[in-house]
Structure to design on (350 residues):
């Protein structure tokens, strides 16, 4: 009996010692991780196709107000010639309101990319309307025979219309197109090697940046994307001015351009328990950023099937990742990267 009691006591002593040691280890590890400042991962997004032809101006206001109130930063395109004419010239009452809100994007935390003027055929700036036929803008950026001056004049016109509309563009997005003519020509170009912009596009953008025509000296470009093979690539630079292809490493699960519930999945980004999803995956692999892309058709708060999912993702990020991530506009990401010559600037960002 006594022996048994002793054994129990001895066992308890070991147990208490083990608990004491684990508390010490817990406190020590807690202290050391506080001293070592963990680098934060950048969060951002590109939002394509934003125009009043898809949802009314109040939808844009709701989106921008939400971003501002929650400290969300990212990008939203403005397609000035979405209906064949420039919104900057004699806008109707809906367009006027839309532009009034779009002009508040930057102060709301949101960059404004040109997704080129029409997203379709080239715009005839002299006639003030879209060309009725001919090459689509996205494909035109890839044609090897277009001269840099032609691109520069075209981009310059878009910047001018932006300023007339009350804002300055801060970046550039490639408008995707799956029409028959584009698909056939893209296939031909791909057969000759990896698809790429005519280098004149980058030189023209740099040139205009150096004239301070953009809202930022360093221009982000949204070209292609990949969950695994993503990178930031300097395309042109001169002193403080530069052009960077900043690839998203997460896709659109907020309804895409079809505004379809089949492609709405907040868990793709971060699950309710905060344990998995692409944001967590990139965080765990030590990625400098997690940038995804979306489309105004699916995301807009008026009729987009992805709006609730977007808010859910933001709430989950706030709940599980506070202090581990930092929201940034794409233009601030490329500017920070260019100034620092790498990702070290992130530890300085709050
Ligand atoms: Zn688009
Ligand atoms: Zn096309």
């Amino acid at each position: 009996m006594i022996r048994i009691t002793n054994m129990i006591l001895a066992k308890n002593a070991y147990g208490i010692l083990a608990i004491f040691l684990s508390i010490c280890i817990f406190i020590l590890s807690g202290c050391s991780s506080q001293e070592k400042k963990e680098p934060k991962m950048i969060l951002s997004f590109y939002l394509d196709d934003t125009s009043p032809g898809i949802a009314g101006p109040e939808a844009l206001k709701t989106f921008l107000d939400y971003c501002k109130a929650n400290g969300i930063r990212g990008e939203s395109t403005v397609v000035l010639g979405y209906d064949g004419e420039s919104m900057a010239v004699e806008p109707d009452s809906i367009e006027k309101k839309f532009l009034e809100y779009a002009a508040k994007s930057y102060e709301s935390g949101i960059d404004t990319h040109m997704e080129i003027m029409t997203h379709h055929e080239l715009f005839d700036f002299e006639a003030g309307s879209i060309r009725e036929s001919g090459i689509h803008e996205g494909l035109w950026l890839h044609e090897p025979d277009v001269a840099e001056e032609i691109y520069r004049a075209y981009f310059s016109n878009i910047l001018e219309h932006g300023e007339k509309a009350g804002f300055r563009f801060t970046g550039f997005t490639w408008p995707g197109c799956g029409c028959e003519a584009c698909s056939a020509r893209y296939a031909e170009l791909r057969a000759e090697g990896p698809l790429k912009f005519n280098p004149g596009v980058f030189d023209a953008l740099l040139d205009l940046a150096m004239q301070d025509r953009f809202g930022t000296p360093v221009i982000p470009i949204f070209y292609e994307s990949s969950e695994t093979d993503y990178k930031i690539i300097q395309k042109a630079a001169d002193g403080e001015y530069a052009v960077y292809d900043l690839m998203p490493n997460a896709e659109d699960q907020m309804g895409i351009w079809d505004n379809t519930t089949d492609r709405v999945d907040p868990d793709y980004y971060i699950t309710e328990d905060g344990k998995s999803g692409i944001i967590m995956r990139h965080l765990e692999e030590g990625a400098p950023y997690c940038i995804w892309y979306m489309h105004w058709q699916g995301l807009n708060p008026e009729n987009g099937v992805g709006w609730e999912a977007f808010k859910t993702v933001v709430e989950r990020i706030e709940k599980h990742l506070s202090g581990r991530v930092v929201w940034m506009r794409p233009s601030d990401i490329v500017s920070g990267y260019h100034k620092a010559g790498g990702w070290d600037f992130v530890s300085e960002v709050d």
